[in-house]
């Protein structure tokens, strides 16, 4: 039983550490040359090949005794199972690698404090919300921040902005810069230099987008790219005719690639996600929905528009940070709905000439279904850039 548990732990370790552990070669694990050759002759080449079979299966397949099988399995398990580490050891490793980590400031004090510095490097951060709520405004301000000189709180780098719906505006970015950092943007040539650091791509199809991001992997480090924005991923997929399993397969590939790109390049990747109405046959019911019976007909009365993120649960699991932008009772709110470094918090905001601005740096903690629900009641898309909705 103990041996079986050890093998199961090894399999879990293999799954958790991905292909690196699963594809460890048996020939490099220090087994006796004779038993190693027998494994190879039966086409059992990697740790995964061996540990996915029971000891009895291996005994029959390799035609050797149980004692030798147990010894070989034990050595393979030990070679593929990473040693346990204490929380202190993990913290020390994190400190040693601190130069590889970092954050892109949003210049929203309360939000930056909540996220321990801003949008983190090396992971996917998602902005989700209804149309006109301010997702693109947020992304343009982040692009400005990443291209800004380090002496003024920026990353002093280039930005790749994938503008699927043609919402990016160089004029708006310069306006934000002039209003937010007048002491810098009024310097001669600074506005042109900052705008020149933001490369805008407008893919015409999902295939075109896929080709672009594959090419980016080789050029990000060479060109000092400090931020990748995709606005929006939902719009890319909605232009495809594929449904069901094919659509999920496409999304799964892009999730894996973007996570890999973020980890490889150690830059923040920010992706916007649109919303959809929750259908009646979905099982979740919320307090703002009530059913009324009138004769033989049953109606659903919705007291507030309930929306959900369009890309689904697999995408939600893939992102590390989820920021929800919503409008409730006429007020815009940005929620930290998912973050490993903070509880769910909500901040009211408005949009001015300088971009998104928090009305308070003190977030309100969220509990229950309010964390993930998305509201759009009382919201107008018209903004006068003085913080008031018209």
From TrEMBL:
Transmembrane segments: none annotated. Residues 100-275 form the RecA family profile domain. PANTHER family: DNA REPAIR PROTEIN RAD51 HOMOLOG 2 (PTHR46456:SF1). It is found in: Nucleus. GO terms for molecular function: ATP binding; ATP-dependent DNA damage sensor activity; double-stranded DNA binding; four-way junction DNA binding; single-stranded DNA binding. Keywords: ATP-binding, DNA damage, DNA recombination, DNA repair, DNA-binding, Nucleotide-binding, Nucleus. GO terms for cellular component: Rad51B-Rad51C-Rad51D-XRCC2 complex; replication fork. One of its GO terms (biological process) is double-strand break repair via homologous recombination. This is RecA family profile 1 domain-containing protein. InterPro entries: AAA+_ATPase, DNA_recomb/repair_RecA-like, HHH_XRCC3_RAD51B, P-loop_NTPase, Rad51_C, RAD51B, RecA_ATP-bd. It comes from the Eukaryota. CDD domains: Rad51B. Belongs to the RecA family. RAD51 subfamily. Pfam families: HHH_XRCC3_RpoA, Rad51.
């Amino acid at each position: 039983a103990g041996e079986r548990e050890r093998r199961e732990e090894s399999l879990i370790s293999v799954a958790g550490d991905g292909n690196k552990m699963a594809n460890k070669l048996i020939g490099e694990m220090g087994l006796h040359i004779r038993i190693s050759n027998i494994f190879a002759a039966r086409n059992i080449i990697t740790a995964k090949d061996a540990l996915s079979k029971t000891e009895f299966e291996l005994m029959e397949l390799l035609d050797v005794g149980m004692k030798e099988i147990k010894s070989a399995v034990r050595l393979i398990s030990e070679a593929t199972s990473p040693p346990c580490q204490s929380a202190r050891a993990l913290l020390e490793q994190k400190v040693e690698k601190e130069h590889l980590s970092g954050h892109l400031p949003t210049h929203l004090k309360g939000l930056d404090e909540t996220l321990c510095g801003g949008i983190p490097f090396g992971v996917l951060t998602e902005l989700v919300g209804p149309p006109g709520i301010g997702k693109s405004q947020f992304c343009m301000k982040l692009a400005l921040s990443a291209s800004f000189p380090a002496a003024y709180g920026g990353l002093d780098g280039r930005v790749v902005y994938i503008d699927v719906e043609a919402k990016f505006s160089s004029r708006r970015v310069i306006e934000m810069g002039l209003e937010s950092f007048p002491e810098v943007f009024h310097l001669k040539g600074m506005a042109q230099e900052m705008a020149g650091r933001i490369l805008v791509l407008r893919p015409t199809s999902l295939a075109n987008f896929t080709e672009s991001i594959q090419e980016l992997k080789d050029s990000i480090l060479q060109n000092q790219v400090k931020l990748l924005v995709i606005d929006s991923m939902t719009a890319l997929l909605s232009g495809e005719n594929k449904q069901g399993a094919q659509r999920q397969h496409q999304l799964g590939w892009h999730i894996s690639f973007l996570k890999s790109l973020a980890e490889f390049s150690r830059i923040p990747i920010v992706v916007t996600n649109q919303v959809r109405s929750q259908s009646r046959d979905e099982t979740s019911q919320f307090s703002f929905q009530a059913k009324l019976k009138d004769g033989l007909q049953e109606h659903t009365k919705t007291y507030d528009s309930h929306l959900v993120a369009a890309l689904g649960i697999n995408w939600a699991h893939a992102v590390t940070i989820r920021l929800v932008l919503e409008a409730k009772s006429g007020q815009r709110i940005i929620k930290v709905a998912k973050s490993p470094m903070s509880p769910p918090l909500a901040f009211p905001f408005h949009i001015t000439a300088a971009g998104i601005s928090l009305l308070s740096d003190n977030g309100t903690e969220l509990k229950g279904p309010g964390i993930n629900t998305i509201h759009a009641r009382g919201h107008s898309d018209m903004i006068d850039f003085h913080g008031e909705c018209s």
